[in-house]
Amino acid sequence: MQATKTCGFVKISLLFFLLCSIPLVMMAQGEGTEKIYPIEQIQQGFSKKYVYKRQVIDSPLALQIPLLESKDPEVSLEFYRFKSQRKLMNWISSAGLGLSLYSLIKPGKVTDGFYLSTIGTAALVNIYVGSISMRHLNRALVRYNKLAHSSPQLSIEFTPNERSGSSLALQWKYNF
């Protein structure tokens, strides 16, 4: 009697497990074609802002999620280059800040020529690396926007013409 109750419990447990796992299998992540939306750049003075899904984004690092959702290796590579060069800029800036703090704490230890040449070199390297990193970001955005606009599009076009009458056209744009 005890064995049949245990066997029945196992069967009910197994049935419950199977019924609960069917929705998980059906909702599993697979290769889908999610719609990607274009990213627009807005120049405001010396700063650039980005518009994605009608939201204004101040930092280009915040574009990581939409750019990587495209699942394009070229976009990912260019964005990761941009990101690593931004980290390099932070390290160079922190080294300059460390030298400035050291010269404030111990004023006689750092000569003026060494201080100015080090800070000036750090600033020039940051400007150079910053311009290169923005070039990588722009390449990633151009490629991403190209992918966003290359999705298949179906449209209906109505063209009125006085001589031959109106025409109605069904257009299907697909990039092969």
State the gist of this model.
By secondary structure, the chain is α+β, with helices and mostly antiparallel strands. 58% of the residues lie in helices and 16% in strands. The strands form two sheets. Strands 1-2-3 form a three-stranded antiparallel β-sheet, covered by helices on one side. Strands 4-5 form a two-stranded antiparallel sheet.
Explain what the structure shows.
The chain has 176 residues and is an alpha+beta fold. The protein has a domain at 70-173. It is 58% helix and 16% strand. The protein has 4 helices and 5 strands; from the N terminus they run αβββαααββ. It has helices at residues 2-26, 64-69, 73-105, 112-149, and strands at 39-44, 47-52, 55-57, 153-159, 167-173. It has a 3-stranded antiparallel β-sheet with strand order 1-2-3, with helices on one face. The chain starts with a helix and ends with a strand. Mean pLDDT is 81; it is low at 24-32.
Strand arrangement within the widest β-sheet reads: 1-2-3
Shape: elongated
User: What's the average pLDDT?
Assistant: 81
Radius of gyration: 29 Å
Through-space gap between termini: 68 Å
Task: Give unreliable regions as ranges.
Answer: 24-32
Q: Approximately how much helix is present in the residues? A: 55-70%
| Class based on secondary structure composition and strand pairing | alpha+beta
Secondary-structure element order, N to C? HEEEHHHEE
Strand segment count: 5
Largest sheet composition: 3 strands, antiparallel
